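Sample intake sheet
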Amino acid sequence: MGTLSLAQIRVKSSGKLFCMQYKAMFKKRFYHFKRAKKALCMEIFLPIILLILGILSALYLKFFKLSPTITFTDDFYPTKQNLLIT
């Protein structure tokens, strides 16, 4: 066996180094997320359930059906809005 120096195995390409670091970070996040089962529920399933409940309540509750439609215009504001760009 010969001697192995770090200069021989060092990654010198910035693109390859970026890909290696991205892959390592992705693996780290995957394993961390895999351990956190509550995070899976809170980040994915709970928002989906709340979204479905909101859509169903908007479709089937009478409150939303009986409400008059409102068209928003700039007449609601007391003065015209001016934008100053410097």
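Comment: The two ends are 69 Å apart (CA to CA). The chain has one domain: 12-76.
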